[in-house]
Amino acid sequence: MAQHEARAARSGAKEFFTKLESPFILDDPATQAPRGFRTLVQEAGIRSVVMLSITWRSELKGLLYFVSLRDAASTTATWR
Fold first, then answer.
1. DSSP letter, residue 3
2. Is 27 helix (H, G, I), strand (E, B) or coil?
3. Structural contact between residues 27 and 48, judged by C-beta atoms closer than 8 angstroms
4. In this predicted structure, what is the pLDDT of residue 8?
5. How far from 4 is each of 8, 9, 11, CA to CA, in Å?
6. What's the mean per-residue pLDDT of the chain?
7. How many CB atoms lie within 10 A of CB 29?
8. Are 22 and 79 a contacting pair, CB within 8 Å?
9. DSSP of 43-79, one letter per residue?
10. How far apart are CA 42 and CA 68, in angstroms?
11. Is residue 69 within 8 Å of residue 46, measured between CB atoms?
12. Contact 24/52 with Cβ under 8 angstroms?
């Protein structure tokens, strides 16, 4: 990937997570993750991923995420 393409991808991801108002859940990360990460996800046995953005005054400060190694982990949580 060219350097300008990588910068554009990061910018788009930053904008996405800045506007995110609820948890972002990957319930099948082995197929939903970017191609370069799929083997890693499968080898690690990751079944689901939940990400929350941390923003302050509309500026993305970080991401909080966790993974589950159990099936259907995202369907057992209740978000309010």
1. H
2. coil
3. yes
4. 60
5. 6, 9, 10
6. 81
7. 20
8. yes
9. HHT--EEEEEEEEETTEEEEEEEEEE-STTGGGS---
10. 12
11. yes
12. yes
C-beta neighbour count of 70 within 10 angstroms = 9
Taking the model in full, what pTM does it have? 0.64
Q: For residue range 68-80, list pLDDT tens digits in order.
A: 988 755 455 555 5
User: Tell me: the pLDDT tens digits for 43-58?
Assistant: 999 999 999 999 999 8
Give the Cα separation of 49 and 44 in Å (integer).
12
Rounded Cα distance, 51 and 64, in Å: 6
Report the b/e string of 32-65 with b at 16+ CB within 10 A. Answer: ebeeeeeeebeeeebbbbbebbeeeeeebeeeee
